[in-house]
Amino acid sequence: MGKLLCPQCKIAGLYVKNGREERLLVYVSDEGRVIPRNPEEDMEGFDLTIVYCLGCSWSGSPKRLVRR
Predict the structure, then answer these.
(1) Number of domains within the chain
(2) Do the domain assignments include residue 65?
(3) What is the pLDDT of residue 68?
């Protein structure tokens, strides 16, 4: 399974936030699914419609991520 990349800096390291501004590390599969880095983490309450890049200031819809 491939990972989609940040369109700005081309890394796969991303995170999502919940209502309390807590972060959860994720990646987005090449099928567009948001997947937690640690499979045991619960994604309940996290907004999966906006992802944030760990390497730069980019944030946006997972649909805007790019392939290698």
Answers:
(1) 1
(2) no
(3) 84
